[in-house]
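Notes from the 1:1 (GR / supervisor)

We went over the backlog. Supervisor wanted to see one worked example end to end before approving the batch request, so GR pasted a single chain during the call. The sequence is below; no edits were made to it. Supervisor asked that the structure be written out right there so they could see what the output format looks like.
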Amino acid sequence: MREVLICFFLLFGAAMTLVAAIGCLRLPDLYTRMHAATKSGTVGIMGIVIAMMIHVGDASVGFRGILVILFFLLTAPVAAHMIGRAAYRSGVPLCGKTCVDEWRKQELDSEE
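Structure output shown during the call:
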């Protein structure tokens, strides 16, 4: 049963990491690529770390694994938000298919 769980979490983590990589290659602009890398990449890392925790089975490794997962959950969204905000303020264009630009709307409202 333990080996099945390890294989499941490893395959899940690898699949999510692959989704993140494909998203970085296929999506049209910086903002959507960053979203794919952040969300799928974080979930992929979580799957791989959980598999490692099950495989090793040591409490200290489990504690470190939980810290790694918490680190990714806390830092990846904040970093992505700050990079996206800096890119937007630097003038990196949105995809041509983008219909709503909420940051532009907020900037116009704050100028009034």
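Supervisor's comment: The chain has a mean pLDDT of 88.
Batch request approved.
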